[in-house]
Amino acid sequence: MAKVLPSKQVVIVGFGWTGAIMAKELTEAGLDVVALERGSYRDTYPDGSYPQVIDELTYSIRKKLFVDVSKETVTIRHSVNDVALPNRQLGVFLPGDGVGGAGLHWSGVHFRVDPVELRLRSHYEERYGKKFIPDGMTIQDFGVSYAELEPYFDFAEKVFGTSGTAWSIKGQVVGDGKGGNPYAPDRSSDFPLPAQKNTVSAQLFEKAAREVGYHPYNLPSANTSGPYTNPYGCQMGPCNFCGYCSGYVCYMYSKASPNLNILPALKQEPRFELRSQAHVLKVNLDSTGKKATGVTYLDAQGQELEQPADIVILAAFQFNNVRLMLLSGIGQPYDPKTGKGVVGRNFAYQNMATIKAFFRQDQHHTNPFIGAGGNGVAVDDFNADNFDHGPHGFVGGSPMWVNQAGTRPIAGAANPPGTPQWGSAWKKAQAGYYNHQLSMDAHGAHQSYRDNYLDLDPTYRDAYGQPLLRMTFDWKDNDIRMTRFMAAKMKKIAEAMNPEHISVSVKDFGGHFNTASYQTTHLNGGAIMGTDPKTSAVNRYLQSWDVHNVFVPGASAFPQGLGYNPTGLVAALTYWSARAIREQYLKNPGPLVQA
Amino acid sequence: MSADDSVPARRDFLRKSLSLIPVVALASGAPSGLALAAPTPESKPGSSPRADHYQPVFFTAEEWAFVQAAVARLIPEDDLGPGALEAGAPEFIDRQMQTPYARGGLWYMQGPFAADAAPEMGYQSRLVPQDLYRLGIAAVDRWTRQQHGKVFAELAPAAQDAALKALESGDASLDGVPAKLFFAQLLQNTREGFYCDPLHGGNKELVGWKLVNFPGARADFMDWVERDERYPLPPVSIRGERG
Lengths: 595, 243
Prior knowledge:
The structure holds two protein chains of two kinds. Chain A is α/β, with parallel strands linked by helices. Chain A has helices at residues 17-28, 44-47, 56-61, 115-118, 120-128, 146-160, 200-211, 258-261, 263-266, 318-328, 409-412, 423-433, 477-496, 567-585, and strands spanning 3-4, 8-13, 33-36, 74-77, 85-86, 168-169, 172-173, 216-218, 228-229, 235-236, 272-275, 279-285, 292-298, 304-314, 345-348, 351-358, 377-379, 400-402, 437-444, 453-461, 467-472, 501-505, 524-526, 550-551.
């Protein structure tokens, strides 16, 4: 029997961005909050100490900070007819582990959202007609608007210390010709910091994109362009483009993280407690199944403990939120045959294409070891619905950018296409091109489909004996057509740079989801938000339709994948949900939306 | 932490080096006790690091001969400078074999296994790096002995290259281990040993970083972000060695 601990008002499962935001908001509301983080305690010291952290082998290659898949992974299959196999080595995505979660070792690209993507199905039906959306594509609206979320985007940027260039503030254009994005939605205030400097690669992209008629802008970056103190009193130093960003703890206190931007304030708060190495096994429900009573977890010794609580926040990584709901019996599991059920529904990802340009040594020095994770120059001419999709026959858009986050030689020194993989020819190409190349991405949105979903695996288990989560996922015709269109548009930018060689990585028709090569860690859905309990697991406030004292923030709530990176929307939605708990739920605990 | 902590001289050096002085300050030429304590090999352009007396812990003498011969062909010493052998890639690989990585400790290794799964399903073998080397080297030596009457390390460079190509393409049929899987492991670890921080036993005298002009642990480029010019400072390592 689990030992029962003294009750708390709020228990939070996971301490990444969403857990930290909820902890801060709910302690501010006067609640006693405990956060349970399955991984180790981590912070800038010692996990980001210079020079020990400047170690490509340990961090990028052996993946020290990412989830420990020896204990727990996911299984993957391409269709319901296949047997799923475990993702034995980290590859295509790199979820986090430990205090700060993936927020400690992310890159820092910090977007809002294109308003169209929050009401994607309605928008496409209105502009292109219902028949434009292919059979089996299950995209839907979020159930919340950009106008409703704007104050929370604004506040999250101030918490993160985000650098960027506004296009318009309160309807007034301020960023024309200065690096603002003409496609960006209006803002209530400017970025807290001006945009960072641009690398040579980003400058080349900016010039080439303009030449081919696109509209380049500075990427919004949660890497500081100068010293900054956030609304919680947490301090950041200026980013020095060290080039060890994604996959590393920032040694300069420059990359926003839960550890740097929120935890120092929470540590002053007697109502808050953080327990690391606390692995939650399930959410406990009362006899009605309509109310959670707390969670059961294992501590570092493997001791089973029960933490009773009035409110349970599932703030784990996207697919771990879904898994915990399935393991706990919260919400009806999704069935792809009938299309009924909600937990596991609308699992979506990102749809990337990458182009590399290689220059002669006397042409450009791009020095790719210089970098900052959120920094770069992008175009939105083909993002969201910023162009007429009618003639092209696919749903979805894609920003394109140079985002030179810092590439190091073991993993990052690419050679021109056709170069042998070893020997003197390989070596010569390394010496000739490492400092004379750049990489650009079409960071495509990804749609949801009836047969891409999550459930529990029947065979494989984690180190604690619980079933692994199973992904059933493959690319669809719409995805391939979209990414090939985007790669062709982006290739024009590459060609305008007049490089010696160009390499294009793009998906082919008939190709399958490859679990081995990195794409992004932007996984979405499975516990999606919406306005109808038949097609969503949580309501517009991220509250479970079925168990009213369970809230589930995170990209698990996205009905489909965005063109932009998800963290900005994840943070804004979490503040939006926290505010609903503070202002509505605490006064009258129960469903915030009537089904 | 590296396995080198058990070596008294190096442990002593590391203890003395526990300082918060940034490596960048050392590399800028500022005189300090730590800079003097750091190994400062007299490296001439294009010269090879001094002979290494590392004794392998994991590999047998026969395996060690294979590893040394193979890495010397994968990244050869040539007119561009030292290769993987001179960089200490064999020492790096032997030391890696003593880490949890080499025993599959970083991977999900519960069965059932489906080793014949399509490549897009990722790594599905039950073999861990230690197995791949132990079984793979013996299998390659058996195979070259059948083909040429000699083990791999005794072949002429051109024959070694041909053998490596056959492993890479999977044309070589090895007994007990998939040729492509073994080759991929060997090539990946060789590159790691050529380009890692010298803390891990490879990239001696920063020869890998010097080849491509990678500045290593400098990690401070505020003044060079916008400049379309060759980065002028030589690399430094975590321990303060300068290239």
